[in-house]
Write a structure and sequence with these properties.
Length: about 230
């Protein structure tokens, strides 16, 4: 096909594309600055929020809205004490919110996306396809009193493998929250005894699939729904 015959983008489409590319470049430049600051002096780095991290849909990344990340972070704080280990598995939005709201040095984010290594020792590179193969695994075994898990893909294998990680990390009496699709209700109960709750996670961009929260515990804000 001759170049003269190639379909031309409309002015509106071109404007949207240019806006997208400009925002993408700006986000990449801000993140590069963040990495430099973390390398120079991590302890004095200003608070990091999710605006530094664009969603990568190829990794099935869909960030929570503020109310959701606040709720999860608050539950993690309310149900732990100083010194307790807390894990956020494939749930970076909630981890970032928790880190910004509360002073707890034993909170860790388990995440495939290497951008989150700006959190240094609190970052654990994690691939759900290898549930117990990650750095410091043996040191972390059965150490965590509170675990949040948001399996990145909505299928039974992903949930099952993520729950292998949860069981590996969980200390005796650990409390677990799982945020995933409504279709996973029976499997969440079967795998780890997590029951459907009153809380409905929401995402900034919205998702077609209905999401629910399952938990192995009740508290004054998070309650099981009776059948």
């Amino acid at each position: 096909m001759d170049s003269d015959d190639a379909p031309a983008l409309s002015a509106d489409t071109l404007a949207l594309l240019q806006s997208f590319l400009s925002e993408k470049q700006e986000a990449e430049e801000r993140f590069a600055q963040l990495q430099e600051a973390a390398d120079a002096d991590f302890q004095n780095t200003k608070k990091i929020d999710m605006s530094y991290f664009q969603e990568d849909w190829q990794l099935s990344q869909f960030w929570y809205d503020d109310a959701t990340s606040d709720f999860i972070a608050d539950r993690a704080f309310a149900n732990t004490q100083d010194g307790d280990h807390i894990a956020f598995i494939s749930s970076p939005t909630a981890y970032v919110t928790f880190r910004n709201k509360y002073e707890r040095s034993n909170a860790f984010v388990f995440e495939f996306d290497q951008r989150f290594d700006v959190f240094r020792d609190q970052f654990v590179h994690y691939d759900f396809n290898h549930p117990v193969e990650f750095a410091r695994a043996q040191d972390m075994k059965h150490k965590f009193k509170f675990i949040v898990a948001d399996p990145p893909f909505l299928n039974e294998d992903c949930l099952a493998q993520t729950m292998e990680t949860v069981k590996f990390l969980a200390a005796e009496g650990a409390k677990v929250m799982i945020d995933t699709g409504a279709v996973m209700e029976d499997l969440a109960l079967k795998l780890i005894g997590a029951k459907i709750t009153n809380f409905r996670p929401a995402h900034k961009g919205g998702l077609a699939n209905e999401f629910r929260c399952y938990a192995t515990f009740n508290d004054d804000k998070l309650t099981w729904l009776s059948k």
